[in-house]
Write a structure and sequence with these properties.
This protein has about 270 residues and is mainly alpha-helical. It folds into two domains: about 1-50, no CATH class; about 55-265, MetI-like fold (Orthogonal Bundle). The protein has 13 helices and no strands.
């Protein structure tokens, strides 16, 4: 009886997580008359797929989507390059103060972003970056402490004999990094990319602080404005919410095996 009980428990927990998403999808497809029925009607009588197109055209969501894609791609690229290089330096180079600097990097994870929010705003305002996408992109090119730690731990699991063999063949340090370390770091790099993409795609506080022009808004900020203007139009709000949720769900679904592999392969060495 143990296995059926475990499966039943897993199915029940899965339904708890799926129910809100299912409700959002069915609400987006309902007509106005079925929206506020009591008891609530889970399956609409008529599936109105036109709700998605109508809700998308009310606001310039095409512009919001373009801004979000630009921020997400550039931020993810910046995190991959900067974190991989810094992690490689901490894992493979021996220099004075290395361990202390690594502890300093890890200590920054204990500082919440809300503490540095005002100094960052003052800095970006001095640079003239307010109401541009630069505050949402440029900081990612200076690395993240969590991702640096994650990639460093993975590099420490790679045998140094590979580096020594490449050095004998005449490879430079950057050659070793590009030809040996980076290919072996594939699962961990995909893990970093997925996490960073989801963080950027769902970021609301950053765009809210640094952006003023509607044509610079991201999807999360556009959805917030849409909810403020159409607070009672629940089907349109749900339609936009479902459309915005599709890309991160799809990325997570297709990359979940790499996520598990990246975490399992990180190890605890060092």
């Amino acid at each position: 009886m143990r296995k059926p009980f475990v499966y039943a428990l897993l199915v029940f927990c899965s339904l708890l997580f799926i129910a809100p998403l299912f409700w959002a999808v069915t609400t987006a497809l309902k007509s106005q008359t079925e929206l506020y029925l009591f008891p609530p009607k889970w399956i609409p009588s008529v599936w109105k797929f036109s709700n998605f197109a109508e809700a998308w055209t009310v606001q310039p969501f095409n512009v919001f989507l373009r801004n979000t894609v630009v921020v997400t791609l550039m931020s993810t690229l910046g995190q991959l390059i900067s974190c991989a290089l810094v992690a490689y330096g901490f894992a493979r180079f021996a220099f004075k103060g290395r361990d202390f600097l690594f502890l300093v990097v890890l200590a920054t994870m204990m500082i919440p972003w809300e503490v540095t929010m005002i100094p960052q705003y003052m800095e970006f305002n001095y640079l003239g970056w307010i109401n541009t996408l630069k505050p949402l992109i440029v900081p990612s090119w200076f690395g993240s402490a969590y991702f640096i730690f994650l990639l460093r731990q993975f590099i420490l699991t790679i045998p140094r004999e590979l580096d020594e063999a490449a050095t004998i063949d005449g490879a430079s340090k950057m050659g070793i990094f590009a030809r040996i370390i980076v290919p072996l770091m594939g699962p961990s790099l995909i893990l970093v990319a997925v996490f960073q993409m989801m963080n950027c795609w769902n970021d609301y506080l950053g765009p809210l602080i640094f952006l003023n022009d509607q044509m610079k808004y991201t999807l999360t900020l556009g959805l917030s404005q849409f909810k403020g203007m159409y607070g009672v139009d629940m089907q349109s709000i749900m339609a936009i919410t479902v459309l915005i949720s599709i890309p991160p769900l799809a990325v997570f679904f297709f990359a979940q095996r790499f996520i598990v592999g990246g975490i399992a392969g990180t190890g605890i060495k060092g």
